[in-house]
Amino acid sequence: MRWSGKCDSCGEWNTLVEEVVRQESAGRGARAATGDARVYPITRVDAQQDERLRTGLVELDRVLGGGIVPGSMILLGGDPGIGKSTLMMQLGRAETRILYVSGEESLRQIKLRAERLKVGGEHFLVLAETNLDAILRAVQEQKPDLVVIDSIQTVFRPELESAPGSISQVRESTAVLLRHAKSENIPMIVIGHVTKDGVIAGPRVLEHMVDTVLQFEGDHHHSYRIVRGLKNRFGSTNEIGIFEMQENGLREVSNPSEVFLSDRSHGISGSCVTSSLEGTRALLIEVQALVTPSNYGTPQRTMSGLDARRVSLLLAVLEKRFGMHVGQYDVFVNIAGGVRIDEPAVDLAVCAAIVSSARDRAIDHATAVVGEVGLGGEVRSVGQVEKRVVEAEKLGFKRIIVPRGGIADKKKRGIEIIEVDLLAEAMEKLV
Predict the structure, then answer these.
(1) Which end of the chain is more exposed for a tag (fewer CB within 10 A), N or C?
(2) Tens digits of per-residue pLDDT, 224-257?
(3) Which pTM does this prediction carry?
(4) Burial letters for 68-95: b for 16+ Cβ neighbours within 10 Å, e otherwise?
């Protein structure tokens, strides 16, 4: 209340420092306990796992590792209009008590969508709310088996002054929901928007906070949608689930290989079938290539569903090790069906499709190709060749080209297995 240049305690001059005291709100400062805070030896920790919650969608359960773990938090991201809300609402077809919280739609809009998807029943609860406190009160009162938040960018904490969707609101709201899920052992699924770059909007720490991150991807011009696991603390991240968008919702695709090859034409150059491994599932996909003379100074290199740098590497190998010059040609490579493949096991099929288009010679429609191509022009081994061969045989293929030494069991099969060492050797057998 008065000027003071000398400390009353020590008697020194000019030693006082101003400190700003901020009174933190009770809501933000109070950190709910997520379990027993006592320290235990690792031998006394109960490791018994609870039974997973089945979603009623086999494809989604596969990606999650067998179902939803109680008390876990799942982040589902995807482009606008791709079908995230539709997928989450279809969970209501199971006899699970679900609380669906929507911050983007009214109750009437949710009802209309539920009627179209044939979702209903006393077990499916809906709430149109964005206030986090009101959402937690509803969860506390209803005690659902699963909570769906659509979307996390619309939820806000009243204690924070920032607008809904800001980094602080998204981070703090997710933290509160995560603590509630762990303490009450109620699993939660939060839907997150995706930016133009394809990443989930908000801070990257959001992906580190949750237990599972699912990416719902697909092309708006194709009817197929893929659920891909980017992070999973309770299972593998290599699994994918495939759905087909229809008028009455998403239909599970139990045999994706047959679907991806259903529109394949016979006797056309630049087409080759390969097998890609997605988790525990082998998928047969069609690689298409088009090689045409370039009308511009710089040849075009356009890829869809593949890494452009990987295809450029394969073009260099074809020119150096195989003697095929494509410097004056435009090269277009596409994975049919709108699927994206990052596995190097499709290298040999990409090379075969390019050579087939350049020579205008069709590859036998009953032949599949599997193998990684090295910089020396060698065909390198890939993982789980046996599973790929079985999938090709199941769909009626007569022969398959694989790296040498990839098949340990030489038993008699209904499909001819051709082993190759070099890229040139494989091209001679194909085109």
Answers:
(1) N
(2) 888 989 899 998 887 889 899 988 899 998 888 8
(3) 0.75
(4) bbbbbbbbbbbbeebbbbbbbbbbbbbe
